[in-house]
Specification:
Blueprint (H helix, E strand, L loop, with lengths): L15 H11 L3 E3 L6 E3 L1 H20 L3 E2 L5 E3 H4 L3 H7 L4 E5 L2 E3 L5 E3 L4 E8 L4 H11 L8 E10 L13 E11 L2 H21 L6 E4 L11 E8 L5 E11 L1 H6 L2 E3 L5 E3 L1 E8 L1 H10 L16 E5 L4 H20 L4 E3 L7 H10 L4 E5 L1 H6 L1 E6 L15 E4 L3 H26 L1 E3 L3 H7 L5 E5 L4 H11 L2 E6 L7 E2 L6 E2 L2 E5 L3
Parallel strand pairs: 3-9, 17-18, 17-19, 22-23
Antiparallel strand pairs: 1-2, 4-8, 5-8, 6-7, 9-10, 10-16, 11-12, 11-24, 12-13, 13-16, 14-15, 19-20, 20-21, 23-27, 24-27, 25-26
Helix pairs in contact: 2-6
Length: 502
């Protein structure tokens, strides 16, 4: 058996899970940490998170939200105040019971026996409880509403099975928490935020999503309703890319978050919470990447273009590097994330493969002949048009003086091409299904299945138990269509989305 090239990426069709892991590690997005279940986000991966933060933070602030920060530690008694909430998170909570270490007999350290906390502290799995204790203090009048806060933070949920970016014990996220005078205003907020998430997924990530409502069994613990955006990965599985929750007055009652209305009467607030996390980076990888490596949408890539000089001798090297350096400066002045790969220790071909594996959207090649012609050659990471006869890769000759203008258009074309490709992939793999036996067979191949559901939790649980598929969402705007439940044959008003998921 031939020995596998350690630098090669496992093909998707051979082992999808290994393919994903290879890309995360070899594109230097993240690595495993010494702490089981936790990851180290490397600079390239963190740059993607920073780009995500900039885009979303701007949209949050455009809609009146402001940032704050609340403690990492939550008194255990706070979680007990909302029954559904504590039940939903109890098995995932990390608990702090001591506040000091002491010397251990025989060497090392251990929790000091005399440092037991009066009340154990929960390491933040989500912040509803600690934030709403403060909301109860701050909100007194209808004039204090709406309160629209967001925080960028880390959270801890003790996961048994972890996967880089997709499911880790500690992860980064944003969580928004708002309080309103009426349920109507709160629901408008839920939808507004879901629209922001969908806009970010489609316009920045180039990942098409379906907006909808979760079933009772899949909703957030303690919420009245949970809305979500669902994306399809290249193995046909669904990935929940964001959620926005209508909390009703459940937490307001538990934490006594009240206000005096215009008549002077005390009312409980109506609340929402919503969030996305670093799992978006996992979604990005699985939606676009290929067997050559990572593929990044230009709007999120910190390095949008790499310049690779090509020469054979010292005389050619000096001329090419001078032109390449000037090109880099021109591109950076125009606002592009540009890198010039001047390494002499590896070949141009090695550089091509490495930058392709790292997902840089455009490569610009420049050699002595190009310098003579005042041009360079642009090679997009993914094609934006049909290849011509004899072409193995799309290549375009670009005059150096027009490079910023041409590059801007090419990056825009790549962004659109990625979205169109992902949308076509999803549409090809989204099918109606009316027979349960047929569904059980076809779900093995992945995809979204539009099937009727009577609304019964028992039918939903049976599908999950027998097929490992879940009800991903009841899509917004789904047309009314009377039919028979996929499972029991009972009456159903519309189709829902069934799929296996991450």
């Amino acid at each position: 058996m031939a020995k596998r090239d350690e630098k090669a990426i496992t093909p998707r069709g051979e082992d999808y899970s290994q393919w994903y892991q290879d890309i995360v590690l070899k594109a230097e997005l993240a690595d495993y940490s010494p702490v089981k279940g936790c990851m180290v986000i490397r600079p390239t991966g963190y740059a993607l998170w920073e780009a995500t933060q900039r885009a979303l933070d701007g949209m949050f602030k455009e809609t009146g939200h402001v940032n704050a920060y609340f403690p990492l530690f939550i008194p255990m008694s706070f979680l007990s105040k909302e029954a559904e909430h504590v039940e939903g998170f109890a098995k995932e909570c990390a608990v702090v019971t001591h506040h000091r270490l002491g010397a251990k007999e025989g060497g090392g350290v251990e929790p000091s026996p005399d440092s037991v906390l009066e009340e154990p502290l929960i390491v933040r799995p989500t912040s509803e409880t600690i934030m709403y204790a403060m909301y109860a203090k701050w909100i007194r009048s209808y004039r204090d509403l709406p309160l629209l806060l967001n925080q960028w933070a880390n959270v801890v949920r003790w996961e048994m099975r972890t996967r880089l970016f997709l499911r880790t014990t500690e992860f980064l996220w944003q969580e928004g928490h708002t309080a309103h005078a009426t349920h109507e205003e709160a629901w408008e907020e839920v939808v507004r935020i879901l629209d922001i998430y969908a806009r970010f997924a489609e316009e920045w990530m180039a990942v098409p999503v379906i907006k909808g409502v979760k079933s009772e069994s899949e909703k957030f613990a303690g919420a009245l309703q949970t809305t979500c955006i669902e994306a399809m990965m290249q193995d046909g599985k669904a990935l929940q890319a964001g959620t926005s929750h209508d909390l009703g007055q459940n937490f307001a009652r538990a934490f006594d978050v009240k206000f005096q209305d215009e008549k002077g009467e005390w009312q409980h607030c109506w609340q929402t919470s919503w969030g996305v996390s670093t799992r978006l980076i996992g979604a990005l990888i699985m939606a676009h990447s290929d067997d050559q490596g990572l593929v990044l949408p230009p709007r999120l890539a910190s390095t949008q273009v790499v310049i690779v000089p090509i020469y054979k001798d010292d005389a050619g090297r000096a001329r090419v590097l001078e032109a390449a350096g000037a090109l880099k400066s021109r591109l950076k002045e125009a606002g592009f994330g540009a890198v010039l790969d001047e390494r002499d220790t590896v070949s141009p071909g090695f550089k091509f493969n490495e930058w392709e594996m790292k997902g840089v959207p455009v490569r610009l090649e420049i050699g002595p002949r190009d310098v003579d012609q005042g041009a360079c050659v642009a090679v997009p990471r993914v094609p934006t048009r049909d290849l011509r006869d004899g072409e193995k890769r799309q290549k375009e000759t670009v005059p150096l003086e027009r490079a910023p203008e041409v590059l801007r258009g090419l990056l825009d074309d790549i962004q659109k091409a990625l979205f169109a490709r992902a949308l076509a992939f999803r549409e090809e793999r989204t099918r109606p299904v009316d027979d349960y036996a047929d569904f059980r067979e076809r779900i093995e191949g992945g995809g979204f299945f539009l099937g009727h559901w009577c609304g019964s939790g028992d039918c939903e649980a049976r599908v999950k138990d027998e097929t490992k598929a879940t009800l991903r969402c009841i899509p917004f705007g789904a047309p009314a269509e009377a039919g028979k439940c996929l499972v029991c044959g009972g009456e159903s008003p519309r189709r829902v989305i069934w799929a296996r998921a991450y």
